[in-house]
Design brief:
The chain is α+β, with helices and mostly antiparallel strands. Among the domains are: 17-155, Beta Polymerase, domain 2, CATH 3.30.460; 372-418, no CATH class. Helix content is 50%, strand content 11%. It is built from 22 helices and 9 strands. Strands 3-4-5-2-1-8-9 form a 7-stranded mixed sheet. Strands 6-7 form a two-stranded antiparallel sheet. Helix 10 crosses helix 13 (269-277), helix 12 (250-262) crosses helix 17 and helix 13 packs across helix 15. The relative contact order is 0.06. Bound molecules: adenosine-5'-triphosphate and magnesium ion (MG).
Length: 419
């Protein structure tokens, strides 16, 4: 590996918005106050150099973790020892969290846990990172440092393991998923041949990863611009096997991604997961939800994306779609209509389907004009009868096309309460 540190050919990030942001400056100022060094590293530097948006900022520093805590507090910043035994402190400035990690050398790595020693050597810190493009650093003034020559790989969009790919994967099998995630986010989805061969050879170790770690990487991968290509390679190579029974429905995923692209919608990772897996039986689905530790909202999203209903097809009448929208909401309608489209053979620019998916923009479901209190006012005692009257009213109201005249609604409610 070449040592291209502080090479004048490296571009400068001076003036980058995220770097001159008051929050970033406050954290740098706190860390540098007593002579320690600090540099942004990882995704922020990589994305900035690629011209893609910077989300969160990781900072590497020569200050020891307890000193990071102290320096942050001295600068009136909030600091939390989120992973202090591995050198990580979360420093919050202007409500923005920064992961600040002391330069380290991994002595022994076993999954997310590592036995570490702290160092002041940037090259050593770079060597323990996963990919060459993730080992680029940037000082507060925007000077880029490249201790192991990752810039060339970055410009070539080559996701290359630092050191021997097999050995690096054995230290932490999550790196297999990160390899595909970065290939899907930054490359053309066709993974680097060397890394791919190592990922396939080492795939047996994937089974022991924790659900939370897999979940994070898999959802990022699913949302990525060229997720389809990467997931296609992974499925064929059996890399998804621990979570998704083979074969995953790559064809449907590809159709959904094409539809999302034509509609200019951001890739929805959970909907895409549904497209990949919805032919599986319910046990396989429940296992997937459980294994990936999906939140209740994500699990509900995954399930509702599998709902089949004639109202989700454009051939249905507008009223059926309205009733679905009223009963299940706009998000469920859009998810269901997109999935129905992905399951069909209609092209991604199909005008009728486009019009149908946009239904929630044209029609907003009205609110039921009566409540339990209205029924109580009519002399019905609190209890199950109240719910029955409301349900009967709702059926009448839907059947009569959601009338909004309050007089008419009250008359009907009175009539139903007398029954
Ligand atoms: P993103 O933009 O998605 O946050 P990132 O590269 O910043 O991408 P993080 O998970 O935030 O990814 O990790 C920050 C940095 O820490 C990485 O760029 C990499 O240098 C290092 N890193 C993270 N996870 C690992 C890992 N499993 N093995 C080795 N290095 C890692
Ligand atoms: Mg990051």
């Amino acid at each position: 590996m070449t040592s291209a540190d502080n090479d004048s050919r490296l571009p400068s990030l001076a003036g980058a918005k995220w770097l001159i942001d008051p929050a970033t400056r406050a954290v740098f100022a706190a860390l540098l106050a007593e002579g320690a060094k600090a540099r942004a590293v990882g995704g922020a530097v990589r994305n900035a150099l690629m011209g893609t948006p910077v989300k969160d900022i990781d900072i590497a520093t020569t200050a020891l973790p307890n000193d990071v805590m102290r320096l942050a507090k001295k600068a009136s910043l909030h600091a939390m020892p989120t992973g202090i035994e591995h050198g990580t402190v979360t420093v919050v400035a202007h409500n923005t969290p920064f992961e600040v990690t002391t330069l380290r050398r991994d002595i022994e790595t076993f999954g997310r846990h590592a036995r570490v020693t702290f160092t002041t050597d940037w090259h050593e810190d770079a060597l323990r990172r996963d990919f060459t493009m993730n080992a680029l650093y940037c000082t507060a003034d925007g000077t880029v440092h490249d201790p192991i020559g990752g810039y060339g790989d970055l410009t070539a969009r080559r996701v290359r393991f630092i050191g021997d790919a097999h050995a690096r994967i054995r230290e932490d099998y999550l790196r297999i998923l990160r390899f595909f995630r970065f290939s899907a986010q930054l490359g053309n989805g066709v993974p680097d041949a060397e890394g791919l061969a190592a990922a396939i050879a080492e795939k047996a170790g994937l089974a022991n990863l924790s659900g939370e770690r897999v979940r994070t990487e898999l959802l990022l991968l699913l949302a990525a611009p060229v997720a389809v290509e990467a997931l296609g390679v992974m499925d064929a190579a059996g890399i998804l096997d621990p979570w998704i029974e083979k074969p995953a429905n790559i064809k449907r995923l590809a159709r959904l991604a094409d539809i999302e692209a034509v509609l200019k919608r951001e890739g929805d990772p959970v909907l895409r997961l549904a497209a990949l897996t919805h032919d599986k039986d319910l046990t396989a689905q429940a296992r997937l939800q459980n294994q990936l530790r999906l939140s209740a909202a994500e699990a509900a999203h995954l399930t509702r994306a599998g709902v089949r209903d004639p109202a989700l097809e454009p051939g249905s009448n507008e009223r059926a779609a309205q009733v679905f929208l009223y009963r299940h909401g706009a998000d469920a309608f859009i998810d269901g209509a997109l999935m129905a489209w992905a399951c069909s053979s209609d092209p991604p620019d199909d005008a009728t389907r486009t019009w149908h998916v946009a239904m929630p923009q044209r029609w907003r479901a009205p609110e039921l004009p009566v409540r339990g209190a209205d029924v109580l006012e009519l002399g019905i005692p609190a209890g199950p009868q109240v719910g029955r009257v409301i349900a009967a009213f709702e059926n009448w109201w839907i059947a009569h096309n959601f009338p909004c005249d309050p007089e008419r609604a009250r008359d009907k409610l009175r009539e139903l309460a007398r029954l």
